[in-house]
Amino acid sequence: MLAWIRKFNLKKAGWISASVGGINIVVHLLVIASIIPYLWVNGGRTESLEAARQLSTSSIIMTVINILIALIASQIIPVKLNRFFGIVLSAFLIVTLPLTLVGVVQQFLGTTFEKCVMSIVTIIGFCSDTRIAFEKRW
């Protein structure tokens, strides 16, 4: 199974992961700018526009961090990692995969916008993150 996952180009997976993060950031910026209704995201459970803005702002910060990690892990941003940090990076990526899978399930339980649009984006992100996570780094 791992051999099949590793057949996909690592750098392409990094760019796809960064693109998925970019789409996520754009959606949250549209919520902050009130271009799309805040009830379309977060399962429609956000109580006010101000709460949605705070949640979207924190989501943007987390997404930027995830994009940086994906670009470093996929070797698009060349950073020399010794064995210890390579193992830590791999462990971090593998541990966060179940959280991404939970995110996929949450998209299917959310609003119509999340089911129709964001679920596809999240599944593509999960596939590319899986490829990046199972790269040998040591």
What does this structure look like?
The structure is a single chain. By secondary structure, the protein is mainly α. 73% of the residues lie in helices and 0% in strands. It has helices at residues 2-6, 10-32, 49-73, 83-108, 112-133. The protein starts with a helix and ends in a 5-residue tail after the last helix. The relative contact order is 0.19. The mean pLDDT is 89.
Summarize the structure in short:
By secondary structure, the chain is mainly alpha-helical. 73% of the residues lie in helices and 0% in strands. The protein has five helices and no strands.
Strand content: under 5%
Strand count, sense and barrel status of the largest sheet are: none
Q: What's the end-to-end separation, in Å?
A: 20 Å
Protein structure class: mainly alpha
> Radius of gyration over alpha carbons?
16 Å
User: How does the overall form come out from the CA principal axes?
Assistant: elongated
What is the N-to-C order of secondary-structure elements (H for helix, E for strand)?
A: HHHHH
Helix content bin: over 70%
Oligomer: single chain
* Number of strand elements: 0
What keyword list fits this structure?
138 residues, elongated
